[in-house]
Specification:
Blueprint: H1 3-22, H2 43-55, H3 62-75, E1 79-83, H4 86-96, E2 112-116, H5 125-129, E3 133-137, H6 148-154, E4 159-165, H7 174-184, E5 187-191, E6 199-200, E7 203-204, E8 211-215, E9 228-232, H8 235-245, H9 293-302, H10 306-325, E10 331-332, E11 340-341, E12 346-351, H11 359-368, E13 393-394, H12 399-407, E14 408-412, H13 419-435
Parallel strand pairs: 2-3, 2-4, 3-13, 4-5, 5-8
Antiparallel strand pairs: 1-9, 6-7, 6-11, 8-9, 10-12, 12-14
C-alpha cells in the first residue's frame, strides 16, 4: 500500500473508532452527571485531528489557515489571529495597545481602563500586567452587564480604554459603550469569549470593538481544547497583535515563508547593524502564544456546527427559564439585553434575599444530585486574594457585584444537555423547592 492508501485506511478506521468509543450517550437519571459544559463533537473532529497528526506539522499550518478563514467569513472580519487560549487572546489584545507605534493613542502605565468586577479575571489581569489601572464599574443584576450610567461617570482624563465581556453570552449595551468611546476617543476591546455567535442589532458580537477576543476552551461555544483567537478590522492593530503573539518580532512572514517584505537584508532598526536579518528583529516585548495545527484541525470542524450549537443553547436557556419561572418569587431571572439575541453560555439565576433558602443550599442539592452548577466566575474580583494590594479604582460602588458573589449561580445550556436531562433538572428543582 502507498502512504496515501494507508492514510485513507487510518481515517476510515478513525470513523469506526468514534462510533465504538463515543457514540453511546445514554442518560440515566440520578446516575449520569449533568455537566454545565463540555465537548460536543462527532467523527469529523476526530478525523481532522488524526489527519493533522499524520502531517506531523506541529505548529500553524493548513488547518490553522482554514480555521482562521472560517472565523473571518462567519464574523465578516478581515483579520483573525489564532492563539493558544482565550486568556492569551485577552493578554495579546490589550498588550498590542501599548505599542509605541500607536503614538499618542498607545496605552501607558497609569492609564485607566473601564471594566467590571463581576466576571472572569482574564478580562482584567492583562490591564494589571501592563501596569494600567482597572476601574471597576458595577453591573445590572437582570443582564449581569456593565451599569451604563455608572460607566459614564467613571470616565476621567486618565481613561483610555473600555475592556468588558458580554456576560455569559448576553451582549452588553454596545450602542452606549461605543457612544462613550467615540466621545472620549477610547479604545474598545470586546471580550467575546462567552458570546461567540450572539448578536446585537442583528450583527454578531465581536465585530463592534477595535479588537475582540474568542475562547475555544471546552466550556465555550466551540472548542479546540485549549485555544483562542483575536479579531480586528484594523490592519495596524492586526500587525501589532501578530507581533506580540510571535515573540515581538517585527517580521510578518507566515510560517515557512521568507522575505515577504522584499527588504529582509536592507533595512535599519534601532542600533542593529544595517541589513540585520529582518526575521530576527524584535520591535515589541512579546510572547509565543500561537495555536497548533492539531488544535486548529478540531476548530475547523467545530465552527461548521456553531450555528446549530447556538440554537441549541437558546433552546436550553428557554427550557431552564421555564423551570425557574414557576418559582420566580424566590429567584431573579435573567433577561436579554434590549436589541440582542444571545447565544447563552449558561442560564444564570439569583436567589432573592427573602427566599427561604440560600444559594449554596440549592447549589449543594443540585450537585448532590449530579447536576453541576457554577458561580458567576470570580464573584466580585476585588474580594479575590490575587487582587489584594493591586492598583485599581472603584467607580462608585460594587453592591450588585457583592450580591452576585453571595446569591448567584448558573446551570449549563451547552448542546450536550438534552431534553431528557432538562426534565431531570426540573424534577430536582421541584423536589428542593417542595422541601422548603
Amino acid at each position: 500500500m502507498t502512504h496515501n492508501e494507508i492514510r485513507e485506511k487510518i481515517l476510515q478506521l478513525t470513523k469506526e473508532y468514534y462510533k465504538e468509543k463515543f457514540s453511546d450517550n445514554n442518560f440515566i437519571p440520578g446516575k449520569s452527571r449533568i455537566n454545565y459544559a463540555g465537548r460536543v463533537f462527532d467523527e469529523i473532529e476526530l478525523v481532522n485531528l488524526v489527519d493533522s497528526s499524520l502531517d506531523f506539522w506541529l505548529t500553524e499550518g493548513r488547518y490553522s489557515e482554514q480555521f482562521a478563514e472560517k472565523i473571518s467569513e462567519f464574523l465578516g472580519i478581515q483579520n483573525v489571529i489564532l492563539v493558544n487560549s482565550g486568556s492569551s487572546a485577552n493578554l495579546i489584545a490589550f498588550s498590542a495597545l501599548t505599542s509605541e507605534k500607536l503614538g499618542d493613542r498607545r496605552l501607558k502605565p497609569g492609564d485607566e481602563v473601564i471594566s467590571v468586577a463581576a466576571g472572569f479575571p482574564a478580562t482584567v489581569t492583562p490591564v494589571i500586567q501592563n501596569n494600567c489601572i482597572p476601574v471597576f464599574v458595577d453591573v445590572d443584576i437582570l443582564t449581569y452587564n456593565i451599569d451604563i450610567e455608572m460607566m459614564k461617570k467613571a470616565v476621567t482624563e486618565k481613561t483610555k480604554c473600555i475592556f468588558i465581556a458580554h456576560t455569559l453570552g448576553n451582549p452588553f449595551n454596545i450602542d452606549a459603550v461605543l457612544k462613550l468611546a467615540k466621545e472620549y476617543n477610547l479604545w474598545v476591546i470586546e471580550d467575546n469569549c462567552d458570546a461567540f455567535g450572539s448578536k446585537y442589532n442583528g450583527k454578531y458580537t465581536g465585530t463592534f470593538g477595535d479588537i475582540s477576543t474568542i475562547s475555544f476552551y471546552p466550556a465555550h461555544h466551540i472548542t479546540t481544547g485549549e485555544g483562542g483567537a483575536i479579531v480586528t478590522n484594523n490592519e495596524q492593530l492586526a500587525r501589532l497583535i501578530r507581533s506580540f503573539r510571535d515573540w515581538g518580532r517585527d517580521c510578518y512572514c507566515a510560517g515557512g515563508e521568507n522575505n515577504t517584505c522584499g527588504k529582509r537584508f536592507s533595512q535599519s532598526f534601532g542600533t542593529l547593524p544595517y541589513g540585520y536579518d529582518h526575521k530576527y528583529v524584535y520591535s515589541e516585548i512579546g510572547y509565543n502564544l500561537k495555536m497548533t495545527d492539531m488544535q486548529a484541525a478540531v476548530g475547523a470542524a467545530q465552527i461548521d456546527k456553531l450555528p446549530e450549537f447556538c440554537e441549541k443553547r437558546k433552546t436550553n436557556f428557554r427550557e431552564l427559564k421555564q423551570i425557574f419561572t414557576k418559582y420566580q418569587e424566590y429567584f431573579i431571572l435573567p433577561e436579554a439585553t434590549p436589541n440582542s439575541d444571545p447565544a447563552w453560555f449558561s442560564f444564570i439565576v439569583t436567589v432573592k434575599e427573602d427566599a427561604p433558602f440560600k444559594r449554596d443550599e440549592l447549589a449543594k442539592y443540585l450537585n448532590d444530585n449530579l447536576i453541576e452548577t457554577r458561580n458567576l466566575f470570580g464573584g466580585n474580583l476585588i474580594r479575590q486574594p490575587a487582587f489584594k494590594n493591586k492598583n485599581f479604582r472603584i467607580a462608585d460602588h460594587l453592591n450588585n457585584s457583592d450580591h452576585i458573589m453571595n446569591n448567584t449561580f448558573f446551570l449549563g445550556t451547552y448542546p450536550g444537555n438534552t431534553k431528557e436531562k432538562l426534565n431531570y433538572i426540573e424534577s430536582v428543582v421541584d423536589s428542593f423547592i417542595n422541601k422548603k
